Amino acid sequence: xxxxxxxxxAVRTAVKEGEEVVDATAGNGHDTVFLAKLVxxxxxxxxxxxxxxxxxxxxxxLEASGVPSERxxxxxxxxxxxxxxVINPVAAxxxxxxxxxxxxxxxxxxxxxxxxxxxxxxxxxxxEGIVTVACYRGHPGGQEEGKSVLEAAHKLGLRGAVMDTYxxxxxxxxxxxxxxxKG
Length: 183
Description:
This protein is an alpha/beta fold and 183 residues long. 34% of the residues lie in helices and 25% in strands. The chain has five helices and seven strands. The protein has a seven-stranded mixed beta sheet, with helices on both faces. The longest helix has 16 residues, at 142-157. The radius of gyration is 15 Å and the shape is globular. The relative contact order is 0.16.
């Protein structure tokens, strides 16, 4: 199973219809569409990306999937700023790190901002909520970012996070997933 599918599987266990959720890295909008369908008509998705190109692709993906635009707030901002927009406790925050598939590979998530974003996600997640972080180590900065995410996740474990990882065994450069559940 791909790590993105595993992330969706994990999020399904935590999110109920009508809740608020966050796609911290909208990209082409696949997680945004997934989340919007999961929370249903009475739910809300906050989708962040630093690239206008990504938000345009996400909007097109939402429209093609029949998701009403009022259900999703598309925000051109780094995931490090999610705490400035998300006020109510949310059921899930999904990160899909790296670069925009099909986009400029020089524009990618940065370790420093990801660590801030992860901390902000932990602050806004509700009890029994979930944070997923898909890490890709095959691009410049990806190894460092993945290692930093693992270190931050272990520290959150000291604050009550239950952590699971997928895809780490025996591979040094492939993608992996970190799943954090708040007790």
